[in-house]
Specification:
single chain; mainly alpha; Four Helix Bundle (Hemerythrin (Met), subunit A); two-stranded antiparallel sheet; 2 strands
Length: 180
C-alpha cells in the first residue's frame, strides 16, 4: 500500500528528511548527477561490510542492501516512466509496489557486487532516456497516483532524490548494525 506523503515535493525543493534539493539540478545536469549517484553507490557498497549490509536492527526497517536494491530497481522503473512520457503517453503511471519487491525479489540475499553494477547500469539507462529531450518535453506530465503529478523532469529529479536519500538510509542501517 503506497504511503500518503506527497513525494512530488522532493522535486521542487529541499527534502525535509535528507536535505537533498533536486530542484537545484538543471535538466542539462541530469547525466552528471546520475553518474555521481551511481559512483557514490558503487563506492559505498564496495567499502561496506557485507554482513552489516544485510543486518536488520530495527523491526520493519530495510537493511543497507535492501535500500541499494530499491534504488537499483527504482532507476529502472523511472527510466521506463521517462520513456513512456517521451512517447506522449499521459495515462497514469503504473504503481510499483516497492515494499512487496523487497520480499518477492529477496533483496537481502542479492550479491552486493551485482547490485552495485546494476545501479550503475540502470543509472546509465535512465540517463540515456533523457538524451534528445526537447525543452518543452521536460514539462510533459503524468499522474502517479491521484493528485501526484510528475513532469518528465520531476521523474529524473525524484529518482536522484531517492538515490541520495536511500544511500544515507543504507549508511545509517549499516552504522546501526555495527553499533548493535
Amino acid at each position: 500500500m503506497p504511503d500518503a506523503r506527497d513525494w512530488t515535493t522532493t522535486t521542487s525543493g529541499e527534502c525535509p528528511d535528507c536535505g537533498y534539493d533536486a530542484s537545484s539540478i538543471e535538466t542539462s545536469g541530469f547525466d552528471e548527477a546520475l553518474e555521481f549517484e551511481a559512483g557514490a553507490w558503487c563506492h559505498w557498497l564496495g567499502s561496506a561490510d557485507a554482513f552489516a549490509l544485510r543486518s536488520h536492527t530495527i523491526e520493519g526497517v530495510w537493511s543497507g542492501i535492501e535500500y541499494a536494491c530499491h534504488v537499483r530497481d527504482l532507476l529502472a522503473v523511472f527510466a521506463a516512466r521517462v520513456d513512456k512520457l517521451r512517447e506522449g503517453e499521459t495515462d497514469p503511471l503504473d504503481w510499483w509496489d516497492h515494499e512487496a519487491a523487497v520480499t518477492a525479489d529477496r533483496y537481502n540475499e542479492q550479491p552486493v557486487d551485482s547490485v552495485a553494477d546494476d545501479i550503475a547500469n540502470n543509472a546509465m539507462i535512465l540517463s540515456a532516456a533523457t538524451i534528445g529531450v526537447e525543452a518543452e518535453m521536460w514539462e510533459w506530465s503524468a499522474e502517479r497516483r491521484p493528485g501526484e503529478v510528475f513532469t518528465l523532469a520531476d521523474l529524473v529529479r525524484f529518482a536522484l532524490h531517492e538515490s541520495f536519500h536511500h544511500r544515507l538510509d543504507s549508511v545509517e542501517a549499516v552504522g546501526r548494525s555495527k553499533n548493535a
